[in-house]
Amino acid sequence: MLDLLVKNARLDDYQASVDIGIVGEQITLLEADITAPARVVLDAENQFVCAGFYETHIHLDKACILSRCPVQAGGKEEASQLTKEAKKDFTEQDVFARASRVIEMAIKKGTMGLRTFVETDPRAGLRSLAALKRVREVYAPAIDIELCAFAQDGLTQEMATYELLRQALQQGADLVGGCPYTDPDRHVELIFDLAEEFEVNVDFHLDFDLNPAQSGIPKIVEQTKQRGYQGRVSIGHVNKLSAMPPAQRAGLVQLLLEAEIALTVLPATDLLMMGQEHTHLIPRGVVNAHELQAQGLLTTISSNNILNAFTPYGDASLVRMANLYANVAQLATDDEIRATYEMVTTNAARLLARQARLQVGGPATFVLLEASSATEAIRTIAQPLLGYKNGRPTFTNPKAVLYPAV
To answer: Which of 35, 102, 211, 252 to pair with 397, CA 20 to 30 A apart?
Structure first.
């Protein structure tokens, strides 16, 4: 007997609706008109079912702090200073509560896995790490969480951060990352030193401006190759690429391809923070990930921040973020929208070493969306209606009911 039978589901790579049979934590049947008895039967009503969404770049520890960050002028410098000040007062319980709020948002939006950065420095200490380890444990039945020990405010000017990063990796952080643009030198090398010491992957925030000169990409590519870290490095923002002439951009993209470095685009933050000095024809400042994906680069779309000075809005919906990106990148065709969908599903899952295809023998992890296909889901910002992870229900968002006019 099946534990769960999902009837009339629209899936990728299937022309017609199919049924999904589940026993325990695995998909055991995937075919039309399954007749086997089941303890629970769900009717998908010919709506789209996928393996869920994956968030590759988010900051849970500094989410939901707008009330502590009185934004006046806006911009990177103010946001950075306000956040640095607020971080001094973070407590373990405070971070746990705010991160839990965002995790619950994400689960209800169909997110099955994410990578969060954990600010690790003399102001934050290891409090955020302790809080997010608890969050990871509490919500493990519904979502997978990777913790990246992160040097947001630099290294060489405050080397106490280096030892704290080492302690974070000793205490359960999954990977290490940094911001090379916050340091005059050696930042990249020091982060790679830690990665090699603990045999973990690396994630950098990079080129967070619109000056096409002095990109950090060559240095990271050089270190990636020198350390034999191909396929283990990712970078986020990289707004400089959007400001470069095609030939210059193509040269750097080729370097990224050679080093197998993945790139994450962060539309909400980058649209807000880039080009504020312009008075007209304000540049978008968002990298055209679709163009880079077509050249073979692994690209993803992610949220970055939720309700703080860097991004004073957000609901942790990756469908909404993909739709926003498609608007910004001026994408219209089905193929383009499909590629955008891949950036929050299969591409993102690959970056997090997760599976994002529904198949027999695979995990019974899926989301039902109020749409008939992947492209329709992105075009309409489709509502996730329910989710399962490893055969266990994680959320329901009942479909809205319209009442006839009297």
So the answer is: 35
> Interior CA angle at 288 toward 180 and 301, to 5°?
70
Asked if residues 101 and 58 have their Cβ atoms less than 8 Å apart, the reply is: no
Put simply, whether the predicted model's pTM sits higher than 0.90 gets the answer yes
Q: Which residue has the tokens 């050249």?
A: 295
Q: What digits encode the pLDDT tens for the residues 6-34?
A: 999 999 989 899 999 999 999 999 999 99
Sign of the alpha-carbon torsion through 176, 178, 183, 184: positive
Amino acid present at 161: T
Helices 187-198, 217-226: crossing angle, 10 deg rounding? 30
Q: Which two tokens stand for residue 329?
A: 């990148």
Please report the sign of the dihedral spanned by the C-alpha atoms of residue 205, residue 209, residue 210, residue 212: negative
Cβ–Cβ contacts within 10 Å for residue 208, how many?
A: 22
DSSP E strand boundaries for 249-357? 262-265, 299-301
Placement of tokens 């992947």 in the chain: 374
Q: Are 49 and 11 in contact (CB under 8 A)?
A: yes
Burial track 284-294 (b if 16+ CB lie within 10 A, e otherwise) = bbbbbbbbbbe
Q: Is the pLDDT of residue 109 over 80?
A: yes
C-alpha dist (Å) from residue 98 to 13, 93, 141, 235, 315 = 39, 9, 19, 25, 13
pLDDT value of position 340: 98
Supply φ then ψ for residue 49, to 5 degrees.
-120, 130
Joined together, the tokens standing for residue 352 give 């997090």
* Both tokens assigned to 362: 């695979």
Return all residues near 314 (Cβ < 8 A) that are at least 6 apart: 268, 303, 305, 306, 307
Cα–Cα distance for residue pair 365/51, rounded to 1 Å? 6
Cα–Cα distance measured from residue 245 to residue 145, given in angstroms and rounded to the nearest whole number: 37
